[in-house]
Design brief:
heterotrimer; A mainly alpha (about 325); B alpha+beta (about 525); C mainly alpha (about 300); A: mainly alpha; globular; C: flat
């Protein structure tokens, strides 16, 4: 097991390196000049050039890349071109909201989608199944921001049950923290729930045909233990896979959700940085995301061993 | 995990949640009345008002740093940090004496050497400052409270330069901070103004926090824009950045924020209907929309083509695209200077007035050197103002029978592209859209965009000697009448040769909750005198 | 086999007793309509999609005006007899923009689906068949997949100016890794099959092996995957426009009509509402089609896709 972990981690290094190279070159060849934006409207070309020099943006690609790679090995992600704050500080400031949003969305989605999917599988072919699957398909047909605006309007503005925007750190109390995250989590979770419900239903359907389920029924076990203990456990592997893959979806969707609900998270930071060509921030965040994705995949593989004792590394 | 453990954990969690829920409101009540939550026009991405010249940086900076002079609501510079000033008879030596008791946020007194360093940094970046620097003999601190600026030629507009509100403003920083290279950002935000910047709480792109500085000595006079006593009636100001106007509107209605700098006009009717919200014009000096044509290359190097475009341009169409049906917030501007200011003139503006004569415009176009080549029209999509104007322009050119190469891009790329002097086909441009704050269009000193010095002019590089003659005349003018005459001639020459195309004068609204009072109209959201009841 | 002994008398031809039918025989409907009745999801999805295609192709004849004509004095008017869906912030007719917008959204969806499939197929084939390239290609694909596709698309759009072509390209690049993984998976599993071994032993050249044995097996999962990519691409286009990195507004697409109107949705909800409905219906249709195809072609795919 230990050697597996080590091998996996080593295998991820080339992936991360490739991502880093890709991202760095991508933005290097992009048009759009952060120095011009910083210098402002009234600046002359000479002033823009001086700012560019002071930021080190006029040096050749290889020089800039190697310097960046060197600093990276010392866990220094550099400084933002626009705010002059260290990129690590900027990421640290905004990671809590995004992590909170993703965690709540993940928990909410799993706790809604899995039972719903099991229900659909149990009642396969009936009207309940069709309704549930209908909603599921609807779930990933409606764009996230439309759902977000609808929720904000109906729940926050009209009914005034929840706040419209913002983020409260957990240090100020668990309920205020949750209050701000409920609507965004629902909006973001729509797609995720749909995906998980579908895959749950599909795998459950297959598992429910198995002989051991028939045996359990014949033994006289009640429906709930059959469904959840025997069937679900066996169906979990693909479900957990989809949950893992879906994390990338969550990150992407967080971008929009954070914008609609004014949550000061990494998603918005990334979009702002990309549109402004704040290279160090973009590189830092993309690297972070790749790293997270790799970790999540590793976690998923480890969870497999918990669920299915037949899987060993 | 077995069931019992699960139940224990959830019981603990709910107890925690309950306690967290109860504790928060009690603390919030008292603090709430002393905290003003403001939604600014844009994100505060960096915070060096000399290095980065965006309006939002300046708006935040007026809280943190003070200036020697400040514009009042009549755009006249009034003393702020200065107690008295003296000019020598030949106008070459300016002596400024600082008020006593001025302090920085770290408790240190404001000394003349700090002023000297600050002015040196400012004059390296500001257009008027550069003019002064060019004729500067020396700038020294005579003693702890006296600064002397010796020039080689008289500069009558000195106080205007030091008190103006156009960026960069002449903020006074501690000497060690002001010694930073003007082309690099400062890293310390110790200021001389009424509010401290809480750097530890700054989340660029999301939040900025300012706290009252008790050691600030406001003047005794009544506050009037940047002049007079800057008395702070709240303890804390939080800037909450909201990129989505719909979210900001909902937040204001819900009471989650107190003051919104620039609600979009379409949302104003909803805000007006809300019983708890007050809406009013934000800045009577408004903005002048513009698109600039490239005087260096075809087709706009031919004045006939430029004039034809002006003849076909319908300012109402542009302004309606920006402000909709609201007639309170737009005016046609048949010239280059801000309506409602002393130097406003309509001289030579007939080309922009009255019903549009497309036939005559087309005729003029056919007599020009335009051969049907595509016009590279650069439009930034991420700024609502340029986005809307860009679509109107495309329609305008189509009506004229010109070919449009519509380049939809973002503000950052626009900034880079407009600096290219190469021909449009080779990475250059034919026209781009922008706008100017009315406060920056009141006279030629602050108005870079109206200068026509050719290669060293602003993007578009208009080269119109007759305009520059009048600029010089304005600088030399001895009284208001002479200034007005010079500006009238400048306007006429400018429109005849089309420095740029003004698309209209428009104002914006600001909105605040009714439990907030003391908000005034002005080019900057002034926080002094603003108070809030719970 | 020994012949039956001569003395065994063959039984008379089987004369099974005729029992009454307990259930009436199921009429197996053949042909096109029969297929549709058995697969209602394909029927519904296909029908909706065809309606959208019809709208897209025949937009000029469906009572529309030029979708780019401005009329700023008549901006943000609610739906009325003159403007069935109302007007947007520049006075343009929303009905026309939505109908013409179908062209862009459908073009983006189909183009991305086709391009990503072709490119992914090629890469997956190469990766599966050429062992030394496999490791490298899969690392690169892993790298691309670890960047959330929306962020990748935004970053790619930031490189160029907005246009339909660039949007298609950006989304395609973001979707290729998944297709290539899928194809590679199929290729790898097929490579071990006995009949492929037999073909190799018989001396069949590699291109023929790919053509006759491998490609046909990739078609089913790829088709299903392609429909999902189409649906996803249309949503990604909407999100790109929402962020401001999509198709330029001179060309109406459902995404940028919604993006234009997003600030006003509380005051004038119809600007966002109509394109949202059309987009949702279309994406729903494509998803239903995908589900139906998957169930019809190979229900086992439900676990993988």
């Amino acid at each position: 097991m230990f050697s597996f972990l080590v091998r996996r981690i080593l295998a991820t290094i080339p992936v991360v390196v490739i991502v880093a190279l890709f991202v760095f070159s991508l933005l290097f060849i992009a048009p759009g000049d952060p120095a011009a934006v910083i210098a402002g409207d009234q600046a002359t070309p000479e002033q823009v050039e001086r700012i560019r020099e002071s930021l080190g943006l006029d040096r050749p690609f290889l020089v800039q890349f190697s310097e960046w790679a060197w600093r990276l090995m010392h866990a220094d992600l550099g400084r933002s071109i626009f705010t002059n704050l260290p990129v690590t500080t900027m990421i640290a400031q905004r990671i809590e909201p995004t992590l909170s949003l993703m965690l709540i969305t993940l928990l909410f989605s799993i706790f809604v989608a899995v039972p719903v999917g099991v229900l659909a599988a149990w009642k396969a072919g009936t009207i309940i199944d069709r309704i549930i699957m209908g909603f599921a398909v609807l779930g990933f047909s409606v764009p996230v921001f439309v759902v977000g605006y609808l929720l904000a309007y109906v729940v926050a503005l009209e009914l005034e049950w929840l706040p419209v925007q913002g983020y409260t750190p957990i240090a100020r109390g668990v309920w205020p923290w949750l209050e701000n995250l409920i609507l965004p989590a629902i909006a973001l979770g729509f797609v995720y729930i749909a995906l998980i419900a579908r895959i749950t239903r599909a795998t459950m359907l297959e598992v429910l045909q198995q002989d051991y389920i028939r045996t359990a029924r014949a033994k006289g076990l009640a429906q709930t233990p059959i469904l959840f203990i025997h069937a679900l456990k066996n169906a979990s592997v693909p479900i957990v896979t989809v949950i893992g893959i879906g994390v990338a979806l969550l990150i992407g969707g967080a971008v929009v959700t954070e914008s609609v609900f004014a949550i000061p998270g990494l998603g918005r930071l990334t979009v702002d940085a990309i549109l402004r060509r704040d290279y160090p921030v973009i590189q830092g965040i993309v690297l972070l995301f790749s790293f997270v994705y790799v970790l999540v995949n590793l976690g998923v593989d480890l969870i497999y061993t918990l669920i299915d004792p037949r899987i060993r590394y | 995990m077995d069931r019992r453990t699960f139940l224990k954990i959830s019981a603990g969690a709910s107890a925690f949640a309950a306690s967290g829920g109860i504790a928060a409101p009690a603390i919030a009540q008292g603090a709430a009345a002393k905290t003003l939550r403001f939604v600014p026009q844009a994100n505060l991405a960096n915070f060096d008002p000399i290095w980065g010249t965006q309006y939002v940086v300046r708006n935040a900076s007026v809280m943190v740093w003070d200036t020697l002079y400040g514009f009042d609501e009549n755009l006249q510079p009034q003393r702020q940090m200065v107690e008295a000033e003296e000019t020598s008879d030949d106008g070459l030596i300016w002596t400024f004496k600082l008020r006593s008791g001025l302090k920085f946020h770290d408790g240190e007194p404001v000394l003349a050497k700090d002023v000297v360093a600050s002015l040196a940094r400012w004059s390296a970046r500001d257009s008027m400052g550069l003019m002064i620097k060019a004729i500067q003999q020396e700038l020294v601190a005579v003693d702890d409270r006296t600064v002397k600026w010796t020039l080689k030629k008289p500069f009558p507009k000195m106080l205007l330069a030091l008190g103006k509100n156009s960026t960069p403003m002449a903020f006074i920083m501690p000497e060690r901070v002001a010694k930073t290279d003007p082309f690099k950002q400062i890293e310390e935000y110790v200021g001389s103004g009424p509010m401290r910047f809480a750097k530890a709480e700054w989340v660029p792109g999301a939040k900025a926090v300012f706290e009252k500085f008790d050691g600030y000595q406001p003047r005794q006079e009544k506050a009037s824009w940047l002049a007079g006593g800057k008395n702070m009636l709240v303890e804390r100001i939080e800037w909450v950045v909201m990129p989505d106007p719909a979210t900001a509107s909902a937040a204001l209605q819900n009471g989650e924020v107190d003051w919104w700098e620039n609600p979009i006009t379409d949302l104003v009717p909803i805000l007006k209907k809300n019983r708890n919200i007050a809406v009013d014009i934000a800045d009577p000096l408004g903005n002048i929309g513009s698109f600039r044509m490239n005087h260096l290359h075809p087709p706009f190097n031919d004045v006939k083509v430029r004039r034809a475009v002006l003849m076909a341009l319908d300012q109402e169409e542009y302004m309606r695209a920006l402000v909709g049906d609201d007639n309170n917030v737009w005016k046609p501007v048949p010239g280059y200077f801000t309506p409602g200011t002393p130097l406003y003139t309509e001289e030579g503006g007939e080309v922009l007035k009255g019903k549009r004569d497309i036939a005559a415009a087309k005729k003029l176009l056919s007599e020009s050197s335009y051969k049907g080549e595509p016009v590279t029209c650069v439009v930034a999509q991420d700024q609502p103002i340029t986005k809307a104007m860009g679509d109107v322009t495309a329609e305008l050119l189509k009506r004229l029978g010109m070919n449009v190469d519509f380049v939809a891009t973002d503000w950052g790329t626009t900034g880079q592209r407009r600096a290219q002097k190469s021909p449009p086909g080779q990475g250059g441009w034919g026209m781009f859209h922008t706008w100017h704050a009315g406060a920056d269009c009141v006279n030629p000193a602050v108005y870079t965009a109206v200068r026509a010095t050719g290669d060293t002019a602003w993007f578009g590089w208009p080269n119109i000697p007759s305009v520059e003659t009048e600029v010089a005349a304005w600088f030399e003018a001895k009284n208001l009448d002479e200034e007005k005459a010079a500006i009238a001639r400048l306007n006429k020459a400018g429109l005849e040769n089309v420095i740029y195309a003004p698309t209209g004068f428009f104002m914006g609204y600001q909105a605040w909750r009714k439990n907030v009072s003391g908000i005034v109209k002005g080019p900057i959201p002034f926080p002094w005198g603003v108070s809030k009841t719970a | 086999m020994t012949p039956p002994p001569a003395d065994v008398v063959p039984l008379p031809a089987a004369a099974a007793p005729t029992l009454p039918d307990l259930w009436p025989p199921v009429k197996i409907r053949r042909g096109f309509w029969g297929f549709l009745r058995r697969n209602p999801t394909i029927a519904i999805g296909g029908a909706l999609l065809l309606i959208m295609l019809f709208i897209a192709v025949f937009a000029p004849y469906l009572g529309t005006v030029d979708p780019t004509t401005l009329n700023t004095p008549r901006r943000t008017r609610a739906p009325s007899a003159e403007a069935w869906f109302g007007t947007d912030m520049l006075g343009r007719d929303i009905y026309s923009r939505v109908l013409y917008g179908a062209r862009v959204s459908l073009t983006v969806g189909f183009a991305v689906a086709i391009l990503a499939s072709v490119a992914g197929l090629t890469i997956g084939l190469v990766s599966g068949m050429v062992r030394w390239a496999d490791g490298l290609i899969m690392r690169v694909m892993d790298g691309l997949m670890s960047i959330p596709s929306i962020l990748l698309a935004i970053a790619l759009m930031a490189l160029t100016r907005g246009s339909i072509g660039n949007v298609v390209l950006a989304i395609t690049i973001a979707e290729i890794p998944r297709v290539s993984r899928l194809v590679r998976g199929v290729v790898l599993s097929l490579r071990e099959q006995p009949y492929v071994d037999a073909a190799v032993a018989a001396g069949t050249r590699t291109p023929m092996i790919i053509l006759r044995h491998i490609l046909p097996n990739t078609l089913a999962p790829m088709t299903v995957q392609a429909t999902y990519i189409c649906a996803s691409a249309m949503i990604v286009e909407a999100i790109l426009s929402f962020i401001g990195a999509g198709v330029p507004p001179i060309i109406p697409s459902w995404g940028n009509i919604m993006a234009d109107g997003r600030a006003l949705w509380q005051a004038k909800p119809f600007i966002v509402f109509f394109p949202a409905i059309f987009l949702s219906i279309t994406v729903l249709a494509v998803n239903l089609l995908g589900d139906g195809l998957r169930d019809a072609l190979d229900p086992r795919l439900a676990k993988a896709l």
